[in-house]
Amino acid sequence: MAITTDSIEDLPTEEGLFPIRTVCALTGIHPVTLRAWERRYGLIRPKRTPKGHRLYSGEDIELINRVLRLLDQGVSIGQVGQLLESTETPPAESTAAPQTPPPGRDSRGWNDYRMRLREAIGSLDVPAMSATWEDALSLFSLDTVIQQLALPLQRMLQERPVTDVVAGAELAFFNRWLRQTLDTRLRQQQCCADAMHVLAVPMHESPGDLGLLLFALAAAQRGIHAHLLTTGAPVAGLETLARRADASAIVLYSDSPLQHSARLAHWPGAEAGGERLPVFAMGPGFEPLPPALELIGAQSLGTDPDKAARRLHGSLLQV
Known about the structure:
Layout: E1 18-19, H1 20-27, H2 31-39, E2 47-48, E3 54-56, H3 58-72, H4 77-85, H5 105-122, H6 126-137, H7 142-158, H8 165-190, E4 196-204, H9 211-220, E5 224-228, H10 238-244, E6 249-254, H11 261-264, E7 279-282, H12 291-295, E8 299-302, H13 305-318
Protein name: Putative transcriptional regulator, MerR family
Keywords: DNA-binding, Transcription, Transcription regulation
Pfam families: MerR_1
């Protein structure tokens, strides 16, 4: 997930330079990763303040975006520098991370990460889990680490037999740790995502589902602060709550194709006239868009968190 300098022109800068905290919030990259790119690979060369603090230019941010796109396409960090210098850089039309690891050395590397994290989960070793996670983030983008490390390991635990109660407990432990880890990242990124606000409401969300959280992370990189509610929030008060938060829209999420008609019938103003905030729907549970959402004028954002954030950003700019 990456943004261009077009969306950060209004942020406060000093001589057109950005501190590392701002750059990390805007691009989704971890500070450890950014420093590793500088020290180990010489990819980024920021300026320094008299006190030694790093400052990045708009060109540096564009370069970070290019590196992220290459990593998301499966290019190893060791090859990125050569590709950036050549004219044979792989096409960057798609920023989505591959669902399966690339063959060869990188595939074995991801297997090593998964084994390390799996062993740490088995012993409930949170420091080891965090160390493995940060190690992967020092070389790859957050999107890639989620797609290649977190989600495959989550599926591995889910596919264990139902009778394996230990695996079930390990899955619950991992899901909680992963959600807390991503929640922390989201809070870091949202410090700069205050241009637009939306209310994000899970109509249904399984304990291990990360769709809404990943959407909020992608939205934060586009200057959208998504206020996350918990499952079961009464819909009757959503409009009022959203306006109090100065939200520009309400985003509903569901990961399961359940019947939401009964809850949506209580939507404020569903029967009476009056101006309402825009409503958007995303997630597998809202594909295709159910009639109950069509009645309140909801627009579909699809199921992919990053694409949904991009569509929402475009729609809010037109409001």
